[in-house]
Amino acid sequence: MNEIINKEITQGLMEIKGEARGTHFKNDADFVIKEKGKEGLEKVEKELERLGYPIEYEKINQFAFYPAGLRAISLLAIKKVFDWPDEKIKELGAYAMKVSWIIRIFMKYFFSTEKVFKEAQKTWSQYFTFGELIVEESDLKKKYTILKVKNFNLHPIYCRCLEGVFLELGKLILKPHKISCEEIECSFKEGKRHRFLIKWS
Amino acid sequence: MNMSLTSKNSKKKIQAEEEILGLESYIRDFWRFLPLPVCYVNPVNIILDIDEVFSGFSGYQPTEIIGEDLRKLFVSSEQTEEFEKEILKKEIVLNREMVFVRKDKKKIPVNISAMQRKDEKGEFIGYFFSLTDISESKKFQERLEKEVEKKTEDLKEKIGELERMNKIMIGRELKMVELKGKIEQLEKQQKNRK
What we know:
Chain A has 201 residues and is α+β, with helices and mostly antiparallel strands. Chain A contains 7 helices and 6 strands, in the order αβαβααααββαββ. Chain A has helices at residues 7-14, 23-51, 68-82, 86-99, 101-106, 113-127, 156-174; strands at 19-21, 65-67, 132-139, 144-150, 179-185, 194-200. In chain A, the strands form 2 sheets. In chain A, strands 3-4-6-5 form a 4-stranded antiparallel β-sheet. A two-stranded antiparallel ribbon of chain A has the order 1-2. In chain A, a hairpin with an 8-residue loop joins β5 (179-185) and β6. Chain A starts with 6 loop residues before the first helix and ends with a strand. Chain B has 194 residues and is α+β, with helices and mostly antiparallel strands. In chain B, a hairpin with a 5-residue loop joins β3 (92-101) and β4. Chain B is built from 5 helices and 5 strands, in the order αββαααβββα. Chain B starts with a helix and ends with a helix. The chains are: A alpha+beta (201), B alpha+beta (194).
């Protein structure tokens, strides 16, 4: 059976250049506590220690930057410890969008769809020191938006997390009856970049 | 030179991060301390943030209610719509009476007060609102109204009784006047016979 995370994978991830804000780690911890309690988080911390990259979630400064690879390791450790399906990681991404301080800073744009997606492009750089978010296409009449993420090849688990983040972002501004977000192109699946299709009705 | 500039920038960055962290902690503590249920809503009336008291008051966890439409929280959609229109026009709305619906479907009469938020260009970007539970004062008011109603009924009854008495008295008086007249007439007739 293929392990989703082991020492070799973690080393590879830690070699990736680029950083992510501490808030991502805080959101991971909050979500695990919500779903599995503090004991659940302790299990994740033990797994991270076993992998050689311990994270003390409580001591993370949410405004500081940490290696982005470490965030991927955090997500993979969580997925492994609780044997969660991809859908649960998507849920974690959506949760992060709802509760993190990102939303509080970002909320002033939450009145115009165009403005939100436009500002999301700029805001990306505040949360990652690499990669780029671009609105490729947006048609409010036909009710879809395609978001493109360039130069951000961390790990496929991040794609699931981003699906959840974009899905929740859409929910917060579009007031949809139904909404979905799927990755339609992935650089880990022979694509050139990551492209996410948000559709609503 | 470059190294020293980098080091200075880095120190400034760390200092700025610490300041933001301090501010964030201050805001978080302040929200925790607020003894009122407070909620932040965007211009399309989607709930974006709530405080802990609101969570306890409504029965919703933040993740259950953030992203939901404001109308989910009130009994009357029409009243909520009116309130939404009002906060678009006025900077502050005070003590508008509405009926709140908790997660467990319990209805609570509340007074809602709201304040607009604007961005640096003066554009409306959402609003805060707070709730005051007026169940007790409502109950008191209802009790008072019932009491006043009962007292009014009693009073009406008393007035009716008095009116009846009055009618009887007036009837008697009129009868006496009539009898007096008749006596006078009979006395006159008697005198004339003599």
